[in-house]
Structures are given as structure tokens and as C-alpha cells.
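Q: How would the C-alpha cells look for this protein?
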Amino acid sequence: MPRLRGPIRRDKKRRVLRPGETIRADGRYQFKYMVDGKPKFFYSWKLEPTDPLPAGRKPCKSLREMEESLEVRSIICPNSDDDTMTVMELVQRYLSLKTGVKPNTRINYNFVVNALMKDPFSKKPIGKVKMSDAKLWLVKMQSEGRGYSSIHSIRGVVRPAFQMAVDDEILWRNPFNFEMREVLINDSVKREAISRKDMRIFLDFLKNDRHFKKYYEAVFILFHTGLRISELCGLTVGDIDLEKRTINVDKQLQRDTKGKRYIISTKTKAGARLLPMTDDVYDCFTAILRRRKPPKVEPIIDGIGNFLFYDANGNPTVAMHWEHYFNHMVKKYNDIYKYQLPKITPHVCRHTYCTNMALSGVSAKTLQYLMGHSDISITLNVYTHIKFDDAQKEVELVQEQQQKEMENVRKELEQVGEIQPKIIPFRNKA
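A: Here is the predicted structure in C-alpha cell form.
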């Protein structure tokens, strides 16, 4: 029995109507299906059981309750016999279709599979998984100590796997179609921008430290270009044009869990960009190129060579190296000085750059390009993190600028005599 298909429709509450569901002119919900080539219908004043009944209408089952009857479910899900496959089998089926993914994405998939293999939930038949089961499973993982970000990664694979089962007409709805914040506490640590004061203190410390000063220029560049650390590691001599003062960003250098380095494209298509250099960034790249001492035999990775930064073994540095460098640099500063710096990582540098540019008045569209964000909502999210003190300073700055402009206008008008006070001649009443 074929299932009716049509365009996506929504009701007045913006809820998506399933195939076969429509709303009649009188406000009733209708479901249409075919049996032996003939249409059949049933109706209800409610879509879901929790919907209020319109005034003056007789009590009735909701449309969705009626749809759960055996006859209708067999029409919505003609392949429901396959709902005995386990959650693990469904996930593995879904992942087998994900070909050509980046190595770091494949690592994340392996993490999810390994996590599922140890969990009894993975053996549950998909047809037996209710939405409450899905929610309770996430709560259970968090109560057992698994972090919010890890659960987010696991759900990020399981939910589309169940959606595939819906699309394959095995299941009639996805039990994971809910927001995580409805059931979990987000205990993940947010990577926030540091203040301009802390950035200045940190850079001054590096510049004058006997050991860490060799990293000063690279850290300065991270703070003043917004480069991802994998993009910085992937820079080669040919990517730096000192004459035109540009930085070509078109790749990333990463390393897998076995230590093998590889080149991949930028995180998104928008990540491929040409960045301008400020005078200070230009000076930093000049110093880096002048001091660059490559190994006797420069390594070639996926056809790319002449990298800017190398480790002690003559291999190009990767994100892990810089994470360690930053940890040691911040620790040394905090061990020496009473004023304590917050946690600083390469990504904090990127977030700090984005925030500082937003505070400086750079438009969201320009900042989206500079950051290589594929979606402007990611860029706009930075503007929402601006604190009251920052907003107050901006308002005061605008007010001061407006006052100056008004004063200049007043002086100009005075000079041309347009706002000189009128001289009213004295008239003798006598």
C-alpha cells in the first residue's frame, strides 16, 4: 500500500505535519491514506493528545493517537519489520554510508562506536526506543560522569541514524528529535575571550622571557589574525606574501592518533581566505621567516613542504604542540606573578581576536570573512557575548563622538554667521 507524499506543511503552531496530514477549512486535522487503491480518512480537532479541545466540540482522540493504530502504522512504515535491528546495527549502517569524510571526523565516529559498544542501550531494538528512553539514556550517561560535549558527539551520530530509519520508512518518528538542553545540564567549560589587559600582559611576558620568547611572534599572530591553530600549522613559506602583505589560508595540518600528519582542506569552504596583514603582524612574519631553520631534509606531507614551524625532531608542529606550549607559558607566568592569568589556548586567541574586532566596530559580514565562518550566525554569536562594561564603553564612545561632531557643526555655522544671535534694534516707545 503506497504512502502518500507531498510538500512539507505546518499547522498554526508551526508544527510539521506528517505525510497524509492536512488541516481542513473548518480547522479539523485530517489524515488521508490509501487501502487497495481507495482513499480513507479520519479527522480530529486535536493533533497531539495534549492539545486543548476547541470550545463546543465533543471529546475525541487526537489525530496522532489515531495514527498509531496497527493499520495506519503499517501504511506509514511499510518497512517496519526491520525495526528489530539494534541501535548499534543502525548506527553502523548509517556510518557505512559516510564515505570521504575527513580523518578527524572519522576519529569522532570511532569514538561514538566505541562508546556505544560498552553501553547496553546499543543492544536495544530500534522499534522499542521511545522518546523517554532516549532522554533517560542521555541523563544516565551524564549521571555516570560522561561530559556534556561527549554526549553531544554521541547524540550527533545516533540522531541522524534514527532519522535515516524514519526516511527508510522503518520508524514513524525519530525518538531523538528533542533539544539536549531539555534534559541535560551543560557543564562544559566555555572558551571565552580574554581581556585586552590580559592579552597585553601575556604577550609582554613572552616577549621578555628567555625561554618562551621564541614563540612570541606566533602567539601574537594568533591573537591578531584569528587563525585556527591547524591553519597556522599548515602555513608554508609560499603562503606568506610580504610584498602584498597577505596570508593565504587554504589548508590545515593535522595529526591522527597514531602520529601520522596529513593535510586537509580548511574546516569549511568559507575557511579558504586571503587575510591582510597589519604592520605588527607583518613584522612578526618577517622575524619568523628570518629565523626559520628548517631540517636538512624538509618533510613533504601530502605534497606540501616548506612549513613555517618545526618541532625538535624536524617535523612540522601540530595543534598538540601548541596546546602544550600555551599550558607551560601560562603556568610559568602564574608561578612568578601575583596577578593570575586565566586559561589561554590557541582557540582562546582566535575567540579574543573575534571579540576585539567586534568591539572595534568591524561589521559582522567582514568579520565572518576574516574568521572563515561558514554561517554568519556563528559570527553574530560573538556580539551577544559582549559584556555590559564593553557595551557601556562603546555607548560612551559614540556619545563622545556625537558631541564632537555637533560641536564642529556649531563652530562651522558660527563662522558663516548662520547662528549668530539676532540684534533687535531698540525702539523708543515715546
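The chain is about 45% helix and 10% strand.

Residues 82-182 form a domain with the DNA polymerase; domain 1 fold (CATH 1.10.150.130).

Upvote if useful.
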